[in-house]
Amino acid sequence: MIYVCSDIHGRYDLYLALLAQLLLKPSDTLYILGDVIDRGPDGIKILQDMMKRPNVVPILGNHEFTAAVCLPWLLDEVTEQSLAELDATRWAAIQEQLINGAGPTLRGLKALTQEQRREIIDYIREMELYAEVEVGGRNYVLVHAGLEHFSLGKPLEGYELSDFLFCRPRLGQNYGQDWFIVYGHTPSRLLRQQLGEVPSDGILFRGNQIAVDCGCGFGGPLGCLCLDTLEEIYTTNELKRNERASSP
Ligand SMILES: [Mn+2]
User: Fold this and answer.
1) What is the residue extent of each domain of the chain?
2) Alpha carbon 183 to chain centroid distance?
């Protein structure tokens, strides 16, 4: 079986609960479509667990991308010279990362040895931007945020990194008929609100788009889709809705 989930955002508890529900066999694969870290407390623990599991396959999210860019500077010993070498662009990136909930991730890294930190950064740098899978006669493209600047027939290698990582979905976009795009990044509740539908956290299916981020970083459940059976699996989330942050 092939499973997909996304945007775990530091919720190690929900990640473990999902693994307990799935009972992955060696022949199964769980794709995690990015944003494992930040916001919640234990993103680093999740990455360290994922690294040990050959059948858990990460796709790069914007939070991992930003971390891979910022962390090497932050983890170098801070000296007068290293501070002087940080230019305005790097400062801005570090500030943005902190605003986006990187505090717990930085604290998690601080508790590790330098070698463990390097392993995590190397693991992030090896993450792919997308995966293509064929399951049950259906073709799926798995990405973090969607596919910006889409044009029919353009090969996936032709897209920019930012096209996969930062865009907001266009639910009316026609991607052609012979494949499905599966993404996270934007919680399905927000998408339903934009559509004027009753807000709820379940996985959203629209045409050939499937939005699997159920907002577990904001009080929703962690959702997971089995691509073979289209079964939806959810973990509960005890975080109260009024503890939600305001943006994804
Ligand atoms: Mn994201």
Assistant:
1) 2-243
2) 9
Task: Tell me what pLDDT residue 98 has.
Answer: 76
Distance 26 CA to ligand 1 centre (A): 28
212 CA to centre of ligand 1 in angstroms: 12
What CATH architecture applies to the domain 2-243? Answer: 4-Layer Sandwich (3.60)
Q: Tens digits of per-residue pLDDT, 38-95?
A: 999 999 999 999 999 999 999 999 999 988 877 776 666 566 666 677 777 777 777 7
- CA 84 to centroid of ligand 1, rounded, Å: 31
Gap from CA of 166 to ligand 1 centroid (Å)? 7
What residues pack around ion ligand 1 (CB closer than 5 A)? 35, 61-62, 185
Instruction: Tell me how far apart the alpha carbons of residues 35 and 45 are, in angstroms, rounded to a whole number.
Output: 13
- Dist. CA 62 → ligand 1 center (Å): 5
Question: Comparing 4-13, 113-122, 129-138, 142-151, which segment has the lowest mean pLDDT?
Answer: 113-122
How far lies 136's CA from each of 14, 52, 152, 209, in Å? 28, 28, 23, 17
- Give me ligand 1 centre to Cα 108, in Å: 20
Alpha helices in the chain (DSSP H): 12-22, 43-51, 62-75, 80-85, 88-99, 103-110, 114-125, 161-165, 188-194
pTM of the shown model? 0.89
| Rg for the chain, CA atoms, rounded | 18
